[in-house]
From TrEMBL:
Residues engaged in binding Zn(2+) 1: D8, E10
Protein name (Swiss-Prot/TrEMBL): Aminopeptidase
Active site: H115
Annotated keywords: Aminopeptidase, Hydrolase, Metal-binding, Protease, Zinc
One MF term in the entry's GO annotations: aminopeptidase activity
Gene source species: Paenisporosarcina antarctica
Keyword Protein biosynthesis in record: no
InterPro entries: DppA_N (IPR027476), Peptidase_M55 (IPR007035), Peptidase_M55_sf (IPR036177)
Length: 274
């Protein structure tokens, strides 16, 4: 069996605020180790169930957070920030299941450090379905017929996963009090729980159907201000919906929509405050 693990950071055990997920802040190095140990806990469980190939994709910020020398030696690591498919780089039809760890709720929703890709994004829609990073990544997995069998993160991420993916296994390693405060498990306890729950998820993977994306999806991204929408709409094929900060792009498939989203949010980040 072959499994794909996408590891974000905001939903990792014990991390309450930006000082743990920003490489320039004082708590970051400590958080990297917790993040790596959490990935290892999932890897251990997959190996106990007979997995023969495990690929881990670092999926936070510059995507070079996981400590390669401390990652389980049986896993392969994808690291580095310039990747055509970002958080789902290398995910394809050869995998038996995908695991999303360290995930958070989408923008505008309750949850620790909730957001969608960047803080300039207010909402993302595929057709009429509102999604965040979790949903978009699950759609890419579904494009390849791969089910998302486990989602781990804060309680907001778990609620979001359960609403999108029937029968998915979720592990809430912390409970959001506010956007920058949590009630959290001890990392050792959450790691033991993840090792246990991923084994159950592997056993129950036949109950989880891939989240199949629509054909010819319409990507709509609502930005925080009009300047961001103007920058994003510079990408060919994009247009601003009149009277809004929503940029629309009609894609041939979910993969094109995903890459369009990456380009739009990068362009929008050029906007200054004034």
């Amino acid at each position: 069996m072959k499994f794909f693990i996408s590891v974000d950071m905001e939903g990792i055990t014990g991390l309450p605020d930006h000082t743990f997920v920003d490489s320039k802040k004082h708590n970051y190095e400590h958080a990297r180790r917790i993040m790596t140990n959490e990935a290892n806990a999932i890897i251990e469980g997959l190996l106990k169930k007979g997995s023969t190939e495990i690929v881990v994709n670092d999926s936070h910020s510059q995507m070079n957070n996981l400590l390669v020398e401390e990652l389980h030696p049986e896993a392969m690591l994808i690291t580095g920030g310039v990747k055509p498919y970002s958080m789902v780089q290398a995910l394809d039809e050869t995998y038996d299941g995908a695991i999303f760890a360290g995930y958070h709720a989408r923008a505008g929703q309750p949850g620790v450090m909730s957001h969608s890709m960047t803080f300039g994004v207010r909402n993302i829609y595929i057709n009429d379905v509102e999604i965040g990073e979790l949903g978009f990544n699950a759609y890419v997995a579904g494009h390849f017929g791969v089910p998302v069998i486990l989602v781990a993160g804060d309680d907001g991420a778990c609620r979001e996963a359960e609403a999108l993916i029937p029968n998915v296994t979720t592990v809430a390693v912390k409970e959001s009090i506010t956007r920058q405060a949590v009630k959290t498990m001890h990392p050792k306890k959450s790691q033991a729980l993840l090792t246990e729950e991923i084994q159950k998820a592997v056993d129950n993977r036949h109950l989880v159907k891939p989240l199949i994306p629509p054909k010819n999806p319409v990507l709509r991204i609502e930005f925080t201000n009009y300047g961001q929408a103007e920058w994003a709409a510079l990408m060919p094929g994009c247009e601003i919906e009149p009277g809004t900060t929503i940029v629309k792009f009609e894609a041939k498939d979910i993969l094109e929509a995903y890459r369009a989203m990456l380009v739009e949010v990068e362009l929008a980040s050029q906007t200054t405050f004034c």
